[in-house]
Amino acid sequence: MRQVILALLVVTPLGCSRCGQREQAAPPRQESDRPAAAASRAAPVPIIDSHVHITPLPETMNMALQIFSQVGVTKFAVKSAGAPGTLRYKETVRFAEILGEKMAFFANLDWDGIDDPGWGEREADRVEQAMRDGASGIKIFKALGLGVRLKNGKLMRVDDPRMEPIWQRAGKVGAIVAWHVADPVAFFKPVDKNNERYEELSMAPEWSFYGKDFPGHDELLAQRDRVVERHPKTTFLGIHLANYPESLDYVDRLLDRCPNMYVDTSARLGEIGRHPVEKVRAFFIKHQDRILFGTDLIVTPNGMQLGSTQENPPTFEDALRFYKDHRHFFETADRNIDHPTPIQGRWKINGIHLPGAVLRKIYVENADRLIFAHRREYLRSHAGPEKK
Ligand SMILES: [Zn+2]
Description:
41% of the residues lie in helices and 11% in strands. By secondary structure, the protein is of the alpha/beta class.
């Protein structure tokens, strides 16, 4: 049964008019399309995309699987399975059951009832439930610190003690805490022509956290870092390069200080690639066991997002280009190349041409060890005769 559904998922033709995609619109990968360094290899190094969002529907899952098969993504982790008990969660778990080890997922918290004294324990129980359902951990959105408000109207702090039961339980049951704290530094600055993300913020004004009662970028990260330091037995995954790709020195120090901290590269190659190339390369080589490849690809029934918003809805070909730009950065030494999400800044970046062994860790091995080991364990222990 599982094989049948999987086969259906992979081959069912699905046109998505909103995305401008037609079946088989993507030409087969041409040798000449590949970055210089990659072209010399027999086959592209496979990739685990550790950070995607896919609405759990056949059409969106099909779209994502078609993209992945074209760009060499062999496994992926959905960061927005929803809160246990919701329809989104149930459907995401169902797709994970169908796809087996190919797909991992992270559950999300339910902020409802945040003022109730039992909220933290309730959510900690749900984290444990999600792990029993085969999740790899939980993903906490930037809402913590920038959106969730208490009854008194104040924004809940990132290091609020209400979260304690969750941090502790996550450590106890081996749930990875993937965490988005704050946002790009420019989102905390005045939105005017001097803001280097003016183009992006003009299209998504609600992403500005300048003024009002929002804490500053550095304050939010300081609160996060205290939590990570206080919970050495809990593994944290600081997505978007721990939300400080603007300062490699900061992230370097954080990783040195906190062995329980990992980072992913999602939606931040534009920032990462802006630093002097030798510095970036040295950073990736130094922390080669703690960095996970991720893109933040979003696939919904209303279209896709490739790291950020953009003027025209992305097409299937745009998604292929998005992954190609990632490979170009990691695999070649080319200078002045495009970064994957141009709206994040109209500048060019330089490829860092990682050594093969480092590339494999960042593309595959780190995510496999951190995220998919639990998935394998779950599948092994649930492999009943009816699924064989
Ligand atoms: Zn994301």
